[in-house]
Amino acid sequence: MKKVLLIGAQGMLGYDLLKVLGKGYEVIGVDKEEVDITRQGATRAFIKKISPKVVINATGYTDVDGCEKKMHKAFVINGEGVKNIAKGCRDIGAKMVSISTDYIFDGAKGSPYREDDPPNPLNIYGESKLMGERYIEELLDDFLIVRTQWLYGRHGRNFVETILTLAAERDTIEVVYDQHGSPTYTADLSKTIAALARKNLTGTFHVSNEGACSWYEFALEIIRLARLSRAKIIPIATSELNRPAKRPLYSVFDRERLQQKAGIVMRPWQDALRDYFYSRRA
User: Fold this and answer.
1) What digits encode the pLDDT tens for the residues 2-41?
2) Catalytic residue IDs
């Protein structure tokens, strides 16, 4: 059975990856308590000791606004930390799978982003994740960079739970209407990552649930499925929010490469969200 090292096993995505990968692999799930990816020597030694065939990096500093205030932390974890993992993979000839983001794009294209579209991040988070991508491409031949977006899952803070919490506390909730992307369920994302790893593919893939919407439309669907008719969602412009980090207004993915190279078409985001609600009731 192929041995897989999963770094970031306690995170929202990591939890689902651990569950999915456990059905076909010998999975060793670790978090920052076991390995500090910002320490190159320790990281490389840890990877060598475990000696996996595949290393999945599902960790990172993902507080988008926090990255603006803690730039050094962002680049050390999302950039240098990824480089340290890549070097550890190179040492033993392991495949590296790393999770990246739509925030490497500026949103100015106006049509779905392909994997080879030129990046132009608007914020520190996007810049630091792009740095990590480039380190992987420089150091390794056998790698997968999985760009994804708008994640929600059962085991972490996410937009769905935020809206449900606010709906229980307020009569109205303001949500931006002019940022567009694709909500992605971590349970679905995990299955696709596992499938990509099994197929021995390399390179960068855009992975998200099918379809697209605004955060406002996403919130409306959450309220509808939760049957919280009392809560009213108010659309506002991004310019009305005073957030430290700029966000791309349009970061929808072109998923043609995923379909053509891997034969994978993920289900519509509305269907995935419905299943998320079923899992909450279980």
Assistant:
1) 899 999 999 999 999 999 998 888 999 999 889 999 999 9
2) 125
- The model's pTM is 0.95
* Total Cβ atoms within 10 A of residue 193: 25
The amino acid present at 40, given as its one-letter code, is Q
For 40, residues 6+ apart whose C-beta sits below 8 A from its C-beta are 80, 83, 84, 87
Looking at this protein, which amino acid is placed at residue 253? F
Consecutive H or E run containing 12? helix 12-21
Query: Selecting from 3.10.300.10, 3.40.50.1820, 3.40.50.150, 3.40.50.720, what CATH number does the domain 3-154+184-210+252-267 have?
Result: 3.40.50.720
d(CA 259, CA 262): 6
Q: Strand pairing partners for 235?
A: 175
Domain borders along the chain are 3-154+184-210+252-267
| 65 closest CA partner among 127, 151, 123, 152 | 123
